[in-house]
Model the fold of this input.
Amino acid sequence: MIPARVPRVLRMGPARLTAGLDHCRRLDLPAHRTLHGLVEPRELGELISYANEVDMRGRGGAAFPFARKLRAVADAAGSNGESVVLVNGAEGEPASSKDAMLLTRNPHLVLDGAVLAAEALGAREVVVATAGGEVAEASVAAAVAERRAANVSGGAESRVPIRVVGIKERFISGEGGALVKAVNGEEGIPPGRKKRAATSGVDGLPTLLSNTETYAQLALLAECGPQKYAAVGTAKEPGTILLTVSGGAAEGAVIETPTGALLADVLAMCEADIGDGVLIGGYHGAWLSADAVETAVISREGMKAAGATLGAGIIVPLGESTCALGEAARVASYLAGESAGQCGPCRLGLPDIAKLMNALVEGSGSVDAVRRAVRLVERRGACFHPDGTAKFVLSALDAFEAEIALHLEHGSCGRPVRGVMPMPERAAELEYRLEVDWSRCQGHGLCAHLLPEFVELDDYGFPSFRNVPAWMAKEARRAVDMCPALALRLAGTTGDGHGPGPSRSTGSPLRLVKDGVMKAASVPRLARAGAGGGAAG
Done:
């Protein structure tokens, strides 16, 4: 069964990546071979030449030249060294569904491209990393089993080993370094220092790491040859591209379109209400105004001219029924919660930005305060996440200037926040809430010292709290444990601040509450005695 999060497939122009999907829910191996034939192995030099001829770029967002990746892995592996081909199917962007669609409905096209690269490199194995749920993972695993069964029956499928790895899905899970760490069995967060997968990736081996769509494109390029492949699209960026359209679109879909198509035509196909703007490139992308949308062209070059970045092909029209500023603040809060929490800009800066954005929605705060907070995180993070969040927020401030003025003058723009910006269902599990028993709190302030990002003290030293993301739960529990007045407890929320919390207990308030289950927490001896010079609460 196709999961609900994978939208229907539409197309403008010829069907390539989506060929056959109007007739089949999922292309099994016989159906795939009928459409695309058996893949013939290619020499490494031939694949590199093909990729160079059509200037093939990665489709995961960075648009890195694929031929250079192939050459870098081959050079790092040497003549007798091992390498690995890694398929990045960890679609952490809530507004993107193209990887999930390919893995669920057309997995063999992705595997064909990965196997082509593996055979050309002499790689040890192909690893497919998925984070799109059980259905996508099961579809890929079934595709691998179909290939094995075909060989047992006398078929001629490649015998390169293929391994499927399911990893935890979160926004940063698709970052290259985070993905490699997750596949290697480590925590799937970006490494503090940039490491090139081409030099040291899976199991420390040179690794060809590319996006799901990139490998599907490689299979098509080998099947068609450069000349036929370049028969559609623009001269500089030939071929087709997958776009995910959601948000204010009446008919959300994954759309295959030739490069060079007009963004307005794509939105019209989806019956999209543009409203105050269209987000291009996902939650690290930028907003285009309704006027800019009319002339914007679907290509890297075309989007750059319009003031955006195509990225992974994510298009989110807002529509007119929702508060644009409120939607941007929702995304800023989500991005703050998705941080790895391993550097100051993420731990301190992103929650501060989210707080200031929400203050604007409430009609307080100022744009200048948000811009100052953004400047404190730009180019200072351990990974791409702070810079990407900064780009999104700054673009929102520029795009929704008129609406911000309404909020600051009247406290509202008159429209509710309808939640049209896609969010993962698991967002309900991402936050905790600190609660205080005011009959016990003595205003010592240690909780604010331990959690300055989420606890503020009033003029009398008493705390007020903001929701705590899951990556800060350990520190929040520490604040609870160290409160000498035993006044704090930690409750689970739904991620929007309105979830069910614990009822106030008549016994000790020192409880950890998660998923509706209350568990007694240990209390350090010093905290029980109220000793140590500092105090919480």
Notes: The chain has four domains: 14-229, 240-317, 324-410, 430-529. The domain at 14-229 is CATH 3.40.50.11540 (Rossmann fold). Residues 134-152 form the longest helix (19 residues).
